[in-house]
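Below is how a single chain appears once it has passed through the pipeline. First comes the sequence as given, then the structure the pipeline wrote out for it. We keep one example in the README because the format questions we get most often are answered faster by looking than by reading.
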Amino acid sequence: MSVESIETNPLRALSPQDLRAHAAEALTRARERSVALTDIDDEELVRQHSKLMSPLVWDLAHIGSQEELWLVRDVGGREALRPDIDDIYDAFQHARADRPELPLLGPEEARKYVSEVREKSFDILENVPLQGRRLTQDAFAFGMITQHEQQHDETMLATHQLRKGDPVLHAPAPPSARSGRLPAEVLVPGGAFTMGTSAEPWALDNERPAHEVAVEAFFIDTTPVTCGAYTEFLDSGGYQDPKWWSERGWAYRSEHGINAPRFWKREQDGWWRTRFGVHEKVPAAEPVVHVSFHEAEAYAAWAGKRLPTEPEWEKAARFDPATGRSRRFPWGDEEPTPEHANLGQRHLRPAEVGAYPAGASPLGVHQLIGDVWEWTSSGFEAYPGFAAFPYREYSEVFFGGDYRILRGGSFGTDAAAIRGTFRNWDHPIRRQIFSGFRCARDARPGEVG
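Resulting structure:
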């Protein structure tokens, strides 16, 4: 049986009419999120809240610019709305720190522009054939633009976390733990499994193609590392002892005076954090968030473990030992629901570990999707048989750089922009992103039945 033949995808069973409705709903959900994140004072929109991030108004117009380039001009063959701003909103031409100096569209003009682009995109979606061309097959271009917008929505959410002042975003608390006491770790059997995908219609080029990968038996943490567990590392002097850190990690920690996860501060009665303008005590049962790869790696060494490789993470998330096939998600092939995972910015924080028993993998690993992005030990490389599509700058130009792979999405990630094969990458020093981790270790002789 080939690796392609065991993949299934509900999207491919949709009629053309239902596929158009699915794409329209995904685009609409993304836009509702973009509007909510930019429904703040104009002064806040144009301000650069951190040199690490763009002004929110740049992200908003950039979303429209990419949509115009791909859906209006390319897919629809329509006349350009604003060719004069192409260079301004080209992310490769201008570093984030420099974008405030550009002649950006103002808040009102940016909102009008993205609205006009979306109106044309919906008209194109209603009329363009969804077959016969790879870019439009299975509505791929519309899925690509949906994912692009949702990724910027998560970037804008990270900008909100960096801004100063009173809270402007609000959401209900996530569910509490519902799984009861869980084992600390789960054994993942050795052997081959199908990694990546050739059947996911909206998968991006770096997720392709499906291919067989073998891993040795290993143990992986049942849940992401919690704030409570991480506090033990802090309180034991983990940030002051170089033996737990890589040489690069220790040098970066020392140079920048890093002594805790970003946004944490020790006060008289323990550790506190700032979360979207709210000052609160660090919740022990939630996954730790806003830690760099270097911090995650140091904790794992202190705990006598290591970070999982990317293939190990994906096998833990997708492999079903009963059938031998790889699922789209840990729980199966169906799209995520609020019972499966903490996604879509429904809650502006990770949920307690054990809060989503319905989202566990067949092996019993919890919260692999949502809550926090999880660092792996792997760099960003192409899969065997990789082919850039529809442009090299999405993935190919980043292969082999100073990046580490993150998996699983966060509470800020939308369901349209995450799946068991989705690959995120970032520099190992990044801490403003919604990043956490879980540990792994090799299985010792006698531990594998």
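The mean pLDDT is 96.

See the next section for the split statistics.
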